Amino acid sequence: MVDIAGTVSKGWMADAIEVAFDRDYYFDPRQRQAIDSRCNAYLSEHLADLNLLFTESNLGQRRHYEPKQVLVGGIQPNMIIGMLLGADFVPNVRMDADISPIPLAGIEPKELPPPELLLEHELIHMFEDQFRAIDADSSGDLTPIPPFFWDGSGRAAIHGALTTAQKLFGDSIFLDLMTSPRRGAAILDWSTDVSMALVDHFAGTAGRDIAEVHVGECSACMVNAELFDRFVVPTLSRIGRELGPVRLHSCGTSDHLLKTCQRIENLGSLDVGGGTSVAAIRELLGRDLPIDIAPLVDDLLKPAVDSLLAWTENVLKHNADGPLTIGCHVETGYNLGHLRAMRERAGATRGDSR
Asked: Is the pTM of this model over 0.90?
């Protein structure tokens, strides 16, 4: 079974229509919903054949999207954690927002606040109040989605411990893993504690079960298998045991990590970069594991479609008819005709925009 999933970036939407992703877009839920609805209406009108969804890359799912949904605190997970620790929010009207860099540079693990203290932050209370106000509105014109969730599916989303540590402490975390392993492990354990506490908190606020947890371990492909197995796998297994099935995302080529992925408890699916071998995933992790894979950016930017189609055929050949989604996050400059050709070559009958 093969699906084609398509999401669209803020940069692409800013080029397509006159829309600005300012601070209010992120902190005023009703303004957020109005802009998101406008973007998705444009996609439905002009690019209906591609079945695209305007959402964060790899997070929102078309089949679970409703026009009346409103994202409360719909901000990248590690950015929320950064703001709880003093980082400034930095919007960009034409692309993704960010926070001021490495807010915890030089901080020792013993100085880190416990997760329960962060739950008392005014930002958390503001998101709670916004969610409850919309949820209690008798008109029922909007359905609130709490922070760390991106649609009504029950899929939570966090950044992995290593990726969060890199965002908050800087690249020194990679050196810590090798030269100060106790410090590195303490930071990753704390990061996991915080992410799990926030997800559990907002699941409780919304009164919803956690169906699975998307863990964006974007930095995972930057370490070797030994470090991944020693430091990252235990954090992923904790999430799998205590929250729900793990949907593990790694941005780049991750072949060297696949053997150690066998050790992740309650691994539900893999979401990998286009250079990762589907054949290796199937050999090591089985035919039934759902795989999401993204085409290579260079292939989507090339004038000719040949290399993208060759990549598509290779992925399909080695998938062994397992559950597979080819997912593309559309950025400025991508050739939409290439996406249409890829859909046709894959023989997709529907695009879930998972």
From this structure: yes
